[in-house]
Fold:
Amino acid sequence: MSEAIDFDPPFLHPDYRSTVLRAPQRPLVRLPREWFHRSTGPVFGRIPVSPSDSDLTRQHPGEPQGQRIIVSGRVVDSDGRGVRGALVEIWQTNAAGRYLDPADQHPAPLDPNFTGAGRCLTDEEGRYRFVTIQPGAYPWRNHHNAWRPAHIHFSLFGPDLGSRLITQMYFPGDPLIPLDPILQSVPDPHGRQLLVCDFDLETTVPEWALGYRWDIVLRGSNATPMEDRD
Amino acid sequence: MPPFTPSQTVGPFFGFALPFPDGERADPGEGALRVEGQLLDGAGEPVSDGLIEVLAPDQFARCRTDPEGAFHVWVRKPAAEGDQAPHLDVIVFARGLLKHLVTRLYFPDEPEANAADPVLQAVEPTRRHTLVARAEPGALRFDIHLQGPEETVFFAV
Ligand SMILES: [Fe+2]
Structure:
């Protein structure tokens, strides 16, 4: 049986300076998969998810500034089957490129009507959908004149430990993409393309919001068991 | 088969989004065990923007590290399963980690079960101690070293 291709970045990517002292230096210990896949179901049930958590434009009395967008797609396993009941958590800047997080010191305005965090569970077919606003680019201190392309952080949790994923979704046509050491840490152009969503006219709601589509493929217990290939 | 979606770092700005109320308390009961530790980089400096998740079949805790790199969770010791000694799975995220890390916490009061555990046996003897918590008054201590001579054993999952 074939295995899905792995486009994960390496731990050490010196262009992203924070990896230098944080990347493990010893090889990961590889063990038979089933030794780590004993969970009988999702363990994240304590995390509160309410239906309103998927609309980031309605968490405050007023509407946030910026371009309203819809981001939706499917969470699937490596056989293309929808992962139902997966936890999807997102966080992002406001339209000005500022996070609500107190650690963010970028001198761009906060928006009193935008927190920038959302959660949802995937439906029976593995679909998710968020209403939010277009995030902004922001500067960081990795190198001279470094700017992160606009992105939405995604955290995914399927049925077991192997399905855990945290990643970032980028927007098509962003001129900062080729300059970003975090996205460029993904070694293959096809792999990088997997992190860029598609503009989607079908998801777009007339007179209201642009739509983007982004599908996510998780590892996990549904995936083909990995034989010892050494 | 579609390729897996690549991982990216959690970055430094997740603190307003991922923590949830009582996230540290996988077990809210009276008899819960406190596990505490520090997340450290290759220079021995605290990692103050890390996120630790602790999992067992029916337990889940999430804790972000503080300015000293410290984290703590409340858990109960899971039962042994088959030939595996009681343990907790631990996931580490941080700025500067392009992919998360998976390790395990074993319990210091299970020397016989630990000696027979196939996962511990698969690890070089000189590194096994990085997977066993230390008993301290009122808590189990489990430091996580991302690099260096005491680098914690991490697993490919
Ligand atoms: Fe970010």
